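Handout, section 4.2: multi-component inputs.
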Amino acid sequence: MSTLKYSEEHEWVRLDGDIATIGISQFAQEQLGDVVFIELPDVGKTLEQNGDAAVVESVKAASEVYAPVSGDVIEVNGQLEDDPELVNRDPTGDGWFIKVKISDTSQLDAMMDETAYQDFLAGKT
Amino acid sequence: MVEFAGYWMPLQYPTGILREHLHTRSAASLFDVSHMGQIALRGDDPARALETLVAGDLIGLAPGRMRYTFLTNTEGGILDDLIVTNVGDYLFLVVNGSRKSADVEYLRQNLPAGIEVEVLAERGLIALQGPKAASVISKFAPGAESMQFMTAQPFEIDGSPVALTRSGYTGEDGYEISIPSANVESITECILAEKEVEPAGLGARDSLRLEAGLCLYGQDIDETTTPVEAALTWSISKRRRIEGGFPGAQVVQRQIAEGVDRMRVGIVPDGKAPARKGTHITNEKGKSIGIVTSGGYGPSFGGPVAMGYVDARYALKGKYLTLMVRGRPHPGRVVDIPLLPNRYYRAEEQTI
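Output:
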């Protein structure tokens, strides 16, 4: 399992070849609270970096999830339909959102590794 | 923490909205609602005077009883909704926090000179809500457990005079407790120390009242909605429907007689996607027929719930509508309000 890279918008990416798995961070799920619904993009949709990727509905509010990298959606996590709280229980594991085939892996270069992301979170509070 | 009605208030406590909501329905939760406006009307027959500004029957309101009503404008729109209690020698009003300064100014300008409008600024208000509320409150105020729904009674808690009402905004049995500001904190801590009681914030208050079909002023009702459109006609007594005598009475009377073009209804979206405030509602042909005014996830309902205004032709139980959530159509059906049956306290029927 390769390491996670984080965006400042609290998404994570795990790269396997040119396939990026995308989800939201532990911090993001804590902020959102109990997730009740996730609107995922259709398979085949082309996502632009920093463009809309999904919407997470918690009891509190609806929140946009942005695509940290550009690419075509090749798979969505169907388990989230029946069990959206997976995102609360395991945000960086079984609670992943989408898998994207990316063309430009260099888009990950500017993203933060775990240590840098924890520093980023510490700097916010 | 969020800003609400000019106050910083907790949206949720550490357990989160979902658990606070469910705890309220299964045990008891304590809400700090001190942002609400508390007003005393004193003087020469304040009930008769206030009837010139609200649609509810106050002359017929017995001492110790309370009633839900609203201030109306000349078009029959709702300036605020409020609870009026007949304390005996004065009327006690609880109004929305967001409207309290406007209400006080309006009351002072429009009530006769013999009526004194006193803002009870030095009082806090807490709400204890849920099926365990009565057994908890009886430890502090013995006898309060047998109070009728929508009645008020003075008690002493922890050495402080308080006004207890059996009322609330959750659809559950419960109490609101008006307390002198200096004693709010200590009484709140006393009640929170009971094992059945947990604190709950604005988030749970909103999801509870939504399931209970209760309106939030500024969202589900405002100056552009009438009590008839808002499905609140039940709160206008027969005498007041006939006699009128409140601002906009002709509009309300005509609407009761002839019907309205739009109605507030409950809506249950199919699937899991919540339809939140501002969601457009269309018919099967894509024509706009209304808008969602409150919507979200109903933790006790176990899925999304909403309320909103729709074209009266669609305001029929079981009717299917289309909710446009982020540009995508989601079917939903019209249901009765409240979405969950309320569980207010009703004493055993007594046969004589």
